[in-house]
Every structure is written in C-alpha cells, then in structure tokens.
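Chapter summary example: a protein plus N-(5'-phosphopyridoxyl)-D-alanine.
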Amino acid sequence: METVYLNGDYLPKSSAKISIFDRGLLFADAVYEVVSVINGRLIDMVRHIARLERSLGELSINAFADWSSISENLVAENDLREGLVYLQVSRGVMDEREYRWPAPDTAPTIFAFAQSRVLIENPMVDRGMRIITRPDLRWQRCDIKTTQLLYASLMKMEAMAAGVDDVWMRQGDMISEGTSQNAHIISEDGVLISHQLDRSILPGVTRIEMLAQALSMELTVEERAFSIDEAKNAAEAFVTSSTLLIMPVVEIDGHQIGDGQPGERTGKIRQNYLAAVQRVPSRTN
Ligand code: PDD
C-alpha cells in the first residue's frame, strides 16, 4: 500500500508530508471515515460520504472533494482486494498555535490511504469476541467522527492487558458502544436491541445495513440503550463496524453470552449483510 493521497496529489507514502501547525495534529480538529473494501470494491461509500459531510458541517469545516474518486483511485493504485480506505479532513494549517481558528477560508488538509486487511475470513467470526466494560469518558459529541481517539486507544490497550478483545463503554449502567464499533444484543425473546441514534454513539454505516437485514429476517428491532445486565442475559450479542462488519460477542465482563458460542442469528445477519453490500454497485450503495 505505497500510494497515498494528499491535497490533490497521489504520492508514495514516504513523500506525503503535512505541517506541524495543522489543526488536526494540534487540536484533533479533524474528521475521518474508514470504508471497507471487499473484492476490490468500496462498501457503502454513499453512506460514508453522507456521514463525512455531516461531520464536516457540525464542525463548520469547509471541504469539498470527490471522495469516491479519491477512494477508488487508491484502491486501483494499490491493487487492493480486501481491506479499507481511510479518509481524513482537518481544518487546515495555521500560522501559529491558537485555539480560535482563522477565517473560514483556510484550506483544509485532506489525505487518504489504503490498508490491506482480512475482513471476510477473520478468525474471530468463529470464536467470537470477549469484551469487558469500562466507563465512557469521551466527550459528549460522539456522533461526530473526529480523530480524538485517545480514550478509545487507551481502552483497547486495557482490553489487551486484560487478555480480551475489546471494551464496551458504559454510561451509568447503560452500554453506549464499543471503542470502535456499535454494540447490539438479541434478547432471549428474540428482540434485537441497538442504541438509538443520539450524541452518545457514532451513527454507524454498518449498523444501518445490519438493521435492514435484521428487519428482513423478521426480527423485532428496538432502538434504545440496553443495560449491562440485559447484555449479560442476552441470547446473542455482536458488534458492527466497517472493519469487523458483523462480529459475534461471546463474553461480557467474564460472563458467557448464551451458550458461549457465536449466535446463530448473528451469523445469519452477517451472511445476509455480506450478500447485500456486495450486490449493490459501490457508486450507488
Ligand atoms: N470505527 N462507533 C465508533 C466509536 C467507531 O469508531 C466506529 C467505526 C463505529 C462503527 O461505524 P461504521 O459501521 O460506520 O464503521 C461505531 C472505525 C472502523 C475506526 O475508527 O477504525
């Protein structure tokens, strides 16, 4: 994955340089998207662009680019079959460090790169994820996909130290989401429960298609927060994200979920999700 994109140019990654006065570096004044690539095709690009434009709008960052073409060019240039494209937009470069930003005509810094990763044959699909819960200490605009990811990184390190796969964050007794995934459960009576869209979670692109598949399987869907106890007593649990797609969870805080094996309905949702996203041409899905 040698070729990257920076402000209009495609460059070898060692030649892509940005200023130390970029607000993305100094203030995490930047937003991003991670788009999965399967069989050389971008998955759900239109929804990713819509979310990117919303994030930019919420922070009044003026940036326009042909996000689809940049991403497609990176896939082609790097001959990427499976993995992801990362797109980042910062408010741009200042003359000196200053909290307030200058007039809105600052040129944004736009960069993107491709990364190879196994998505479909991920061995975690068969064994399921083990999760611990920790307090959600992030800022209160988690609906904006900013690059302020230090807390998520700290939590991933904590999960690794505890010998598990990841962390679900809790606000009081309620689960908000995973460090870099949305969290969902299927209750004993067959109801799929997924946190409602509000400022405490990222509106996941994968979550939208997952819910569509769940509804077509005639599962009842409730969009609301669920408690740690509800999660522990659920029949199935899983996460959604562009890199894990639909991934089963088999343990929460040392408590086995269902029979401790990846859930059957979760597996079916994953299968149907993969079929659906690959059927739609990337420019229109
Ligand atoms: N993370 N919640 C958070 C906090 C996330 O960072 C992500 C994505 C999601 C899932 O969103 P989507 O289905 O649109 O990928 C939910 C990406 C993959 C990342 O930061 O690497």
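Key point: The chain has two domains: 3-116, 124-279.
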